[in-house]
Amino acid sequence: MMIGLEDVYKVVVAMTPLYVATILGYGSVKWWHIFNPEQCNAINQFVCYFTLPLFTFEFAASVNPFKVNYLFIAADAISKFIIVVVLAFWAKCSSKGSYCWSITSFSLSTLTNSLVVGVPLLKAMYGQLGVDLVVQSSIFQAIIWLTILLFVLEFQRARSDIVTSLITAMNSSSNSSSIIDSTHVVHVEPTKDGEGMNNEIVMNSKPSFLHVMKIVWLKLALNPNSYASIIGIAWAFVSNRWHIEMPSIMEGSILIMSKAGTGTAMFSMGIFMALQEKFIACGPSLTAFGMVLKFFAGPAAMAIGAITVGLHGDVLRVAIIQAALPQSITSFIYAKEYGLHANVLSTAVIFGMIAALPILIGYYAILGFLH
Fold first, then answer.
1. pLDDT tens digits along 191-201
2. Can you cite an annotated GO cellular component (predicted)?
3. Is residue 125 assigned to a domain?
4. Over the stretch 146-173, which tens digit does the pLDDT of each residue have?
């Protein structure tokens, strides 16, 4: 399969409008000063709570769950399992490894902007096959992998709360006392010498798993994108099982907002870029680290998973290219909310969008020579 200039042109045509929307968002704040930070926040909320959920619902509802390529989904799961094993080994055995960086590295190497960037890009490259596969990937990412990420972040926050309480206990007076919060109880008993700094700290209970899960499900309940994926795939099951068409009045109401999903998401991304003090917020070293994970480690793991389950032809090519799509914006939102390397994720989103086009065209050209 030879890649011609016409094929590359189609990809450029599909991607250029995304960059135009991003530049307009950036310029509206940085150059023309049309929006202030408060108005920018309102625009971001509009995208988060209206256009993106309806955009996600539209694509989820269009999937035929009875024709899902489960080998493709299995390859995706295997690739993520490979990443998890490598990161767990790194965190356990390397002096530079850590639980927190493992979470961030997982986000960088596996979570992609599959709908906003992936759909127009893969459609230009591989037609409807590319669209179908990238939508399937995005649905599983929203329902499974982002949910797991949210749970892990909540677990990390609970563990951090314990450490904070222990430090507080160590710095308290030498009298016997208890520290109680919503997740655990820490009991402090004085030593033989009565010195507060030498107190023995006894944990009478571990963080409540049910409490952590309650917080996780509360976060999910407040995330309309989770609803959009689940309701959309539920409708897809019903409509394809009993051949029920969506009422035109409902479809029109959804489309009028969902069609704005791509443009407003990229416009919002441009606004976010303009609000940053530095274009590269985390420095060149961490930026390079993030780009290696995003554009090379993720696709390499996906290639292993795809070959393991026997994918071939255009399905194999789509699997590898969709793994190299730019960083998921949702992963940055979570990182910012939980205070875990948000500067690294923001840089990955911004720089990844800029670097994505030439890198993905390169993948497209190289994979085109594979039979």
1. 474 444 444 44
2. endoplasmic reticulum
3. yes
4. 878 877 887 777 667 666 766 666 666 5
DSSP state of 172: S
- Residue type at 204 in one-letter notation: N
CB burial of 314-349 (b: ≥16 within 10 Å; e: otherwise) equals bbbbbbbbbbbbbbbbbbbbbbeebebbbbbbbbbb
Residue whose token pair is 């590359």: 8
Burial class (CB in 10 A: 0-12, 13-18, 19+), 290: buried
Residue spans of the chain under pLDDT 50: 176-188, 191, 193-205
Residue 202 lies in a domain: no
CA 364, 349, 219, 60: dihedral to nearest 10 degrees? Answer: -30
Tokens 């909310």 -> residue: 337
Do residues 257 and 58 lie in contact, with contact meaning Cβ atoms separated by under 8 Å? no
Predicted confidence at residue 221, as pLDDT, reads 78
Are the C-beta atoms of 114 and 299 separated by less than 8 Å? Answer: no
Q: How many domains does the chain have?
A: 1
Kindly give the residue spans of alpha helices, DSSP state H, lying in 243-278: 248-258, 261-275
Other CB atoms within a 10 A radius of the CB of residue 189 amount to: 13
The Cα–Cα gap between 20 and 268 comes to 12
240: CB partners within 8 A, 6+ apart = 64, 65, 66
Domain hosting residue 104, numbered range: 5-158+209-368
The reported pLDDT for the residue numbered 4 is: 67
Q: What is the pLDDT of residue 305?
A: 96
Tokens of 1: 């399969």
Q: Which amino acid is at 125?
A: M
Domain assignment of residue 167, yes or no: no
Q: Alpha-carbon distance 356 to 232, whole Å?
A: 29
118 occurs within a structural domain: yes
Q: Is the dihedral of CA 313, 315, 317, 320 positive or negative?
A: negative
Domain with residue 111: its CATH number is 1.20.1530.20
Contact 40, 71 (CB under 8 A): no
Residues 78-104, buried b or exposed e (16+ Cβ, 10 A)? bbbebbeebbeeebeeeeeeeeebbbb
CA distance 206 to 183: 8
